[in-house]
From TrEMBL, chain A:
GO terms for molecular function: G protein activity; GTP binding; metal ion binding. It comes from Platysternon megacephalum. Keywords: Cytoplasmic vesicle, Golgi apparatus, GTP-binding, Hydrolase, Lipoprotein, Magnesium, Membrane, Metal-binding, Nucleotide-binding, Prenylation, Protein transport, Transport. The lineage of its organism: Eukaryota, Metazoa, Chordata, Craniata, Vertebrata. It catalyses: GTP + H2O = GDP + phosphate + H(+). Its cofactor is Mg(2+). The keyword Lipoprotein applies. This is Ras-related protein Rab-20. It comes from the Eukaryota.
TrEMBL record, chain B:
Residues 102-375 form the CNH domain. InterPro entries: Clathrin_H-chain/VPS_repeat, CNH_dom, Vam6/VPS39/TRAP1, VPS39/TGF_beta_rcpt-assoc_1, VPS39/TGFA1_Znf. CHCR repeats lie at residues 642-806. It is found in: Cytoplasm. Residues 30-76 are annotated as: Disordered. It holds the Pfam family Vps39_1. Keywords: Cytoplasm, Protein transport, Transport. GO terms for biological process: autophagy; endosomal vesicle fusion; intracellular protein transport. This is Isoaspartyl peptidase/L-asparaginase-like.
Length: 233, 937
C-alpha cells in the first residue's frame, strides 16, 4: 500500500522522537532503545494513509536523513526543552536535510519532555482549568528550570522560513507550529500529530490534483523509448 | 534493528541451545574448512570464545522495538524458533575440486536446473541440479556435473551470468566478458565480447522490447565510466556511456535507472536523461557496498551502522531499514525475507516487520545470491541452497511460539503466494489460532476480534469450558486442533480467578454472537452454554435469556439449573417449553419452602399473575385453591384480572367462580365487587349478594368493635354507596335484614329507593337528626329526576322540619338553613304560605333574594326562549316563501312593463306580482312604497 503523504520526525538523539511516535500510535510510554536507521508507521487519517517516519538521531545515521525527507509533506523538528544544544542542532545539522522535502512542506518545531520542567504543573493547570480534580504533582521539587523556551522555538521557526525563503504570510503562524509536548505523560501529543495531519491533508489533495509527482508511468515511458531504439537499430 | 544479545553461556553448554541446530548440521557435515576443526562451518570453536570481537554466539533478538511483552527477555530461544530457511548442500567439495585443494569457488550462476561455478583457476563448471523431496518432506539436491571448461587465462573467473533466451553464458574473466554456449560452454564463433569491464550486471527490467537481446551494464576500466550494451546471440553493441561523479564500485539496473555505489555515496542515475539523485553517503574504504535490485524500481543497499536500506528509483525509502550487521558480504531476497551473509552468519530479516527471524551460523561464506527465487550461498569450497520452508509451516511455527503478530503479518503477506481459496481457508484458521493464543493469555479484546474475523465456530471456544456444550451436541473439535488446550482447567492451571475471567468473557462473547450469523446452525449449543454460565455465575441475565426467544435445550439446561438450585429459572425454562404444569409445581414448592430459591421475593404474586394469564383452564382451577388459601385478596386476581374474552368463552363464568369462592368470603366480596362495580353486570343476584355480604360484614364488625374502626367505616361506606347507586338489588329483602338494627342511614336509603321519601326523611330528621344527610338525601334521590320531583322532595323535607307537631328550635333552624341554602329548589310562593308569620324577613333574606333572582332569571330565560322561537319561526317562513317562488325566464322577447321596450342587460327588477321592469324604470317609480327590488341573472 502506497502512503498518500509522509511525515518525518527529525532531531538530535535522545530528544524522544521514537517515544513521541510510540505514545501517539500505541498510547503508551515505554523505554525505547536508540533507534537504528529508522522505522515507520502507517496512520489512517480519514481516507488517507500517512506514513510516519522515525529517524535515527545518532550522528552515524545522519546521512540517511535526506533520503527519508525526500518528498515529505511535513517535517517535525524535535528538541528537548531541557537541552539547549538539541535546539541548536536542529538548525545546524537537521535543517539542511529537509532540502529534499516537498516544496510546500510543513514545518513543526516540537519541544519534548516538558514533564521534567518546573513549569509543567502550571501548564497542566492552565490547560485543564475546568477539570474538577487537578492531578497533584507531588514531585515538584525534582523538576528543573526549563532550558529552552517557546520563544526560542518561534525564533527558529522564523529562521527556517528565511532559510526556505518563504513568506510568513504564506505559511502557518509560528505560534501555531511550535509545540511543547511530553511523550511520557502524553501531554499535547495527540494535539501535535492531529494538527499536522489536518495540515497535511490539503497538501495531499493538491499533490493528487497535480498528478503523481513521484510515480513514473512505465507504460508511457516504454513506448517512447521503443521508437527511439528502433531508430538506433 | 534486532538487538544482539551476548549469551552468558560458556561454549560447553552449546548443545542445549536451539540456535545452531540447523546450521550446525549443515556446516558440520559438509564444510571442511581450513581451520580443520571438528565443525568449522558451525562456528563453535572453543578457542574463540574469549575473543572479544568474535563472540561465541551472537544471538540476535527479534523485536525491532526493543524489549516488550511480546518477546520475554528470559526466553530468548523462544524468539528464535522460526525457521524460514533450511540450509541444504548442493555441490560438495569433492565434486568440485576432487583433491585439488587450491581450487576456490569465485562466482556462481544458476539458471533453471543449470548451475555454473567459476573458479579461481579459470575454470567454469556446469552442473545439473535436481531437487528431491523425500517422503518425509525433506528436500535434498543432487548435482550432476555436466562438464567443466578451462578458459585459458591465469585469472579467476570473476562473474557468470546466463542469458537463457540466447542460450548464452556471459563470463567475466580478465576484464573481458565473453559469450559461451550455455550447454557446451564453447565460445561463440563470432567471438563477440565486451572488453574493459570491471564488473557487470544484467538489466532485469529491460527497456527494449526485444526478447532475443539482453541489456548489460558494466563498470568500465575507464575511470568513472558506466557503459550499457545490448547483447545478442552472437554480437554485442554499445548503446550508452555515462560518466559518474566518482568512481563506481557496484551497480544495479532497473529500466533506465542505475543504482550506483560510488566512492563515498550511493546514487540513482537515470542513464537516459543523465539526472542523478543522491541517496546517502557511506564509506567505501571501510566496507563493501551492496547494491541489489530487489524488485521493480527498488533496490537494497548496505547503509551505515549495519543497515539494509531500501530505496526506490525516486530516491525514496518505502520500507524501514533492516538491521543486519556491519560487514555484510552479500544480500538476497526471498519474499518476504531479506537474507544477508556476513563472516559468521546468515541472517534472515522480514521485510514486513524488519525483525530478525532466523540466524544460521555459516562460516567463510563469500557468495550469497538469489536466482529466480532460489537463494544460493557458497564458501570457497562448497555451494549450498537456502530452501525456504513453506510459509504455512513458518506461520505455524510462529503460532506455536505465540508470536501472533508476526504470524499474522506473514500470513497476510502469503496472500500473494497462495491460491485465493486455499489462502482464505488457511488465513481464517490462522486468525482462529491466533485468537486462542490471545485467549489463553486472557487478552480477550484481541481474541474476540480474531475470533470474529476468523469466523470461528463458537463451539470451538465453548468446548474449552467443561460441561458447557449440551451432551447432545454433535460438535467435534477441528482437526488439527486450533490450540493446545484440553480444557479451561488446563489452560488456567486451576487458577480460579483466571477461570472466572474466562467465563465472564465467554458470557459476553456468546451474548454478542447469539443473535448474529455466527450462531446459525448451532443456536442450541450457544444458548445452552450461555444459560449454564449465567446460572453458575448467578448472573441476572439468566432470567432475561429465559423469558426472551432462546434455544436452550430442555433436558441439559434443566439438569444444570437444578444443580445450581435455580428453581425459579427452571420454572421459566419449563414454561418456555410449554410445560406450565411443571413450572407451577416447582414455583409453588419454592413458595411453600420445600425448595430454596430466593430469586424472587414476590414469587407468590408472580404465580398469581402467571395463573391470571394462563390459558390452561385445568391448571388454573387446580391451583386456584392454593392461591386463595395463601391470600384471599390477592389470589382472587386470577379471576378478576383475567382477560375478558377468556372469561366469556370457557369455564371461567361467574357461577363456577363463585362456587369455588364460597369458602373464601373476602375473595367472594372482591369478586362480586368486580362483577358489580367494575364490569357493571346488572344482575339482581350479584347486587343483592354483594349488599348482603357488606351488610353482614358491617353487622359483624359492629358486634365486635365499639369504636368506629377504619374497616367498619370503609365497609359501611361501600354498603351505602352500593345501596344508593345500584337499582338491581332486592330492596325489601335488604330492608328486612336491616330492620331492628341501628343502620338508620341505610334504612333511609332503602326507603328512598322505594320512593317512600317521607319515611326516609323522617328517619334522617327525627332519628338521626342529621340535617345535612337529609339535604344530601334530597339531592341524590332526585338525581336524574326532573325539577318538580326535586322540589317535591325539598318541600317534603321542609314540611318535616316545620311539622306543627313539634316546635323544636333545632328543626326550625334547620328549616331556615335549608331555605337559605337551597333557595332554588323551592317554589317560593308555596314556601311563603308555609313559613310561620312570626319569621322576620331578615331571617329569610338569603332565601328571598335567591328566590327572587331565580324567579327573574326564569322569566328572562323564558323571554329569550320566546324571542328565539319567534326568530326561528320567521326563518322558516322566509324559506317557505323562497321555496314557493318559480323561476323567471328573461329573453329578448320580454318587454319592460313600464317603458315597453326589450331588455338589453341581464339586470332587471321583478315585482311580487311577477311584473318585470328595467332597473332604471323601477328607480323612477320609487314612489310606489310596495315595490321591492329583486335582481337576478
Amino acid at each position: 500500500m502506497k502512503p498518500d503523504g509522509k511525515v518525518v520526525l527529525l532531531g538530535d538523539m535522545n530528544v524522544g522522537k521514537t517515544s513521541l511516535l510510540h505514545r501517539y500510535m500505541e498510547r503508551r510510554f515505554q523505554d525505547t532503545i536508540s533507534t537504528v536507521g529508522g522505522a515507520f508507521y502507517l496512520k489512517q487519517w480519514g481516507p488517507y494513509n500517512i506514513s510516519l517516519w522515525d529517524t535515527a538521531g545518532r550522528e552515524q545515521f545522519h546521512g540517511l536523513g535526506s533520503m527519508y525527507c525526500r518528498g515529505a509533506a511535513a517535517v517535525i523538528l524535535t528538541y528537548d526543552v531541557n537541552n539547549l544544544q538539541s535546539l541548536i542542532e536542529l538548525e545546524d545539522r537537521f535543517l539542511a536535510l529537509t532540502d529534499t522535502a516537498s516544496a510546500d512542506c510543513i514545518f513543526a518545531i516540537v519541544g519534548n519532555k516538558v514533564d521534567l520542567t518546573n513549569e509543567y504543573a502550571l501548564l497542566l493547570e492552565t490547560e485543564e482549568e475546568n477539570r474538577p480534580e487537578k492531578p497533584v504533582t507531588s514531585c515538584i521539587s525534582t523538576k528543573v528550570q526549563k532550558q529552552v523556551h517557546l520563544d526560542d522555538a518561534v525564533a527558529l521557526y522564523k529562521k527556517i522560513l528565511k532559510y526556505k525563503m518563504l513568506d510568513e504570510k504564506d505559511v502557518p503562524a509560528a505560534e501555531k507550529m511550535c509545540f511543547e509536548t511530553s511523550a511520557k505523560t502524553g501531554y499535547k501529543v495527540d494535539y501535535l500529530f492531529e494538527t499536522i495531519f489536518d495540515m497535511v491533508v490539503p497538501l495531499i489533495l493538491r499533490q493528487q490534483a497535480e498528478g503523481p509527482l513521484q510515480t513514473v508511468d512505465i507504460t508511457n515511458y516504454k513506448s517512447a523509448k521503443r521508437t527511439k531504439s528502433g531508430c538506433c537499430a | 534493528m534486532g538487538r544482539r544479545v551476548f549469551l552468558p553461556h560458556p561454549p560447553a553448554s552449546r548443545p542445549a541451545l536451539p540456535l545452531s541446530i540447523t546450521g550446525l548440521r549443515a556446516g558440520a557435515s559438509h564444510v571442511t574448512g581450513r581451520t580443520g576443526g571438528a565443525a568449522p562451518g558451525g562456528g563453535w570453536e572453543p578457542g574463540r570464545a574469549a575473543g572479544g570481537d568474535s563472540p561465541v554466539a551472537k544471538l540476535p533478538r527479534t523485536g525491532a522495538r526493543g524489549p516488550g511483552p511480546d518477546c520475554p527477555a528470559d526466553h530468548p530461544e523462544d524468539t528464535m524458533s522460526l525457521k524460514a530457511f533450511k540450509l541444504v548442500p548442493a555441490v560438495e567439495r569433492e565434486m568440485l575440486m576432487g583433491d585439488k585443494a587450491r581450487i576456490n569457488v569465485e562466482c556462481i550462476e544458476c539458471c533453471g536446473k543449470n548451475l555454473y561455478i567459476g573458479t579461481n583457476e579459470c575454470f567454469v563448471y556446469h552442473f545439473l541440479l535436481e531437487e528431491k523431496i523425500s517422503s518425509a518432506g525433506k528436500i535434498t539436491f543432487a548435482a550432476t556435473k555436466q562438464l567443466h571448461k578451462y578458459l585459458g587465462f591465469k585469472k579467476a573467473v570473476s562473474e557468470l551470468k546466463a542469458a537463457s533466451a540466447l542460450n548464452r553464458l556471459l563470463v567475466l574473466c580478465d576484464n573481458t566478458i565473453t559469450l559461451v554456449n550455455m550447454m557446451n560452454l564453447e565460445p561463440i564463433p563470432t567471438g563477440a565480447r565486451i572488453k574493459g569491464a570491471v564488473t557487470f550486471t544484467l538489466n532485469e527490467n529491460p527497456m527494449s522490447g526485444d526478447p532475443f537481446c539482453v541489456e548489460v551494464c558494466i563498470i568500465s576500466v575507464k575511470r568513472r565510466t558506466i557503459q550499457m550494451f545490448m547483447v545478442y546471440e552472437d554480437r554485442v553493441q554499445i548503446v550508452k556511456e555515462v560518466s559518474t561523479p566518482e568512481q563506481p564500485c557496484a551497480v544495479a539496473v532497473d529500466g533506465h535507472y542505475l543504482c550506483l555505489a560510488l566512492t563515498t555515496q550511493y546514487i540513482i542515475l537515470n542513464y537516459n536523461t543523465g539526472i542523478s539523485q543522491d541517496l546517502f553517503p557511506y564509506c567505501s574504504d571501510e566496507k563493501r557496498p551492496i547494491v541489489k535490485r530487489i524488485g521493480r524500481q527498488e533496490f537494497l543497499l548496505a547503509g551505515p551502522g549495519g543497515l539494509g536500506m531500501f530505496a526506490t528509483v525516486d530516491g525514496i525509502s518505502q520500507r524501514a531499514p533492516v538491521h543486519w550487521s556491519e560487514n555484510v558480504i552479500g544480500a538476497a531476497l526471498c519474499f518476504p525475507y531479506v537474507v544477508a551473509l556476513d563472516d559468521e552468519f546468515i541472517t534472515v530479516h522480514s521485510m514486513l516487520d524488519q525483525q530478525l527471524k532466523q540466524t544460521l551460523p555459516f562460516k567463510e561464506g563469500h557468495i550469497l545470491q538469489d536466482f529466480e527465487g532460489k537463494v544460493i550461498v557458497a564458501t570457497n569450497k562448497g555451494v549450498y541452497i537456502l530452501v525456504p520452508l513453506p510459509l504455512e509451516r513458518q506461520i505455524q511455527d510462529l503460532l506455536t511460539s505465540h508470536r501472533v503478530e508476526e504470524a499474522l503479518v506473514l500470513a497476510k503477506a502469503a496472500r500473494r503466494n497462495i491460491p485465493k481459496e486455499k489462502f482464505q481457508v488457511m488465513y481464517k484458521r490462522i486468525l482462529q489460532q491466533a485468537g486462542f493464543i490471545h485467549f489463553a493469555q486472557l487478552q480477550f479484546l484481541e481474541a474476540k476480534e480474531l475470533f470474529r474475523s476468523g469466523q470461528l465456530d463458537v463451539r470451538e471456544l465453548i468446548s474449552l469450558y467443561p460441561f458447557l456444550l449440551p451432551t447432545s451436541s454433535s460438535f467435534i473439535r477441528s482437526h488439527p486442533p486450533l490450540h493446545e488446550y484440553a480444557d479451561l482447567n488446563q489452560l488456567t492451571q486451576g487458577d480460579q480467578e483466571k477461570m472466572t475471567k474466562c467465563k465472564r468473557f465467554l458470557m459476553s462473547y456468546l451474548n454478542e454472537v447469539r443473535s448474529t450469523d455466527v450462531a446459525n446452525g448451532y443456536k442450541e449449543d450457544i444458548d445452552t452454554a450461555l444459560l449454564k454460565l449465567y446460572a453458575e455465575a448467578n448472573h441476572e441475565s439468566l432470567l432475561d435469556l429465559l423469558v426472551s426467544e432462546n434455544f436452550c435445550l430442555l433436558t441439559d439446561s434443566a439438569a444444570w439449573l437444578e444443580k445450581h438450585t435455580k428453581y425459579f429459572a427452571l420454572g421459566l425454562l419449563y414454561h418456555y417449553n410449554g410445560q406450565d404444569a411443571a413450572a407451577l409445581q416447582l414455583w409453588i414448592k419454592i413458595v411453600n419452602g420445600d425448595v430454596q430459591d430466593s430469586t424472587r421475593s414476590d414469587l407468590y404474586e408472580y404465580i398469581v399473575d402467571f395463573l391470571t394469564f394462563c390459558s390452561d383452564q385445568e391448571l388454573v382451577w387446580k391451583y386456584a385453591e392454593w392461591v386463595l388459601q395463601k391470600s384471599e385478596e390477592v389470589g382472587v386476581q386470577i379471576f378478576t384480572k383475567r382477560p375478558l374474552e377468556d372469561q366469556v368463552k370457557n369455564s371461567f363464568n361467574p357461577d363456577n367462580i363463585m362456587n369455588c369462592l364460597n369458602k373464601y368470603p373476602k375473595s367472594l366480596v372482591k369478586y362480586l365487587e368486580y362483577l358489580v362495580l367494575d364490569r357493571k353486570i346488572e344482575k339482581e343476584k350479584y347486587h343483592t349478594h354483594l349488599a348482603v355480604l357488606y351488610l353482614e360484614a358491617v353487622l359483624q364488625l359492629k358486634s365486635v368493635t365499639t369504636d368506629n374502626c377504619a374497616e367498619l367505616t370503609e365497609t359501611q361506606t361501600k354498603l351505602r354507596s352500593l345501596l344508593q347507586k345500584s337499582d338491581f338489588y332486592r330492596i325489601h329483602f335488604i330492608l328486612d335484614k336491616i330492620k331492628g338494627t341501628d343502620l338508620h342511614m341505610e334504612r333511609a336509603i332503602l326507603y328512598g329507593k322505594l320512593e317512600e321519601h317521607d319515611k326516609a326523611l323522617h328517619i334522617l330528621v327525627h332519628e338521626l337528626k342529621d340535617f345535612s344527610a337529609a339535604e344530601d338525601y334530597c339531592i341524590w334521590s332526585s338525581e336524574s329526576k326532573d325539577l318538580p320531583y326535586r322540589q317535591r322532595l325539598f318541600h317534603m323535607l321542609l314540611s318535616v322540619y316545620l311539622n306543627p307537631g313539634s316546635s323544636d328550635c333545632e328543626l326550625v333552624m334547620a328549616a331556615v338553613d335549608l331555605l337559605n341554602n337551597h333557595a332554588a329548589e323551592f317554589d317560593a310562593a308555596r314556601v311563603l304560605q308555609l313559613v310561620p308569620d312570626s319569621w322576620s324577613v331578615q331571617l329569610l333574606s338569603p332565601f328571598l333574594t335567591g328566590a327572587m333572582r331565580e324567579s327573574i332569571h326564569t322569566k328572562r330565560m323564558a323571554q329569550i326562549t320566546l324571542g328565539l322561537a319567534k326568530a326561528e319561526n320567521l326563518i322558516y317562513k322566509h324559506d317557505k316563501v323562497k321555496l314557493k317562488g318559480s323561476p323567471i325566464i328573461l329573453s329578448d322577447k320580454k318587454l319592460c312593463q313600464v317603458c315597453q321596450s326589450p331588455f338589453c342587460e341581464p339586470a332587471f327588477v321583478r315585482y311580487p306580482n311577477g311584473g318585470m321592469v328595467h332597473t332604471h324604470c323601477a328607480a323612477k317609480r320609487l314612489v310606489n312604497p310596495n315595490m321591492t327590488h329583486h335582481s337576478q341573472t
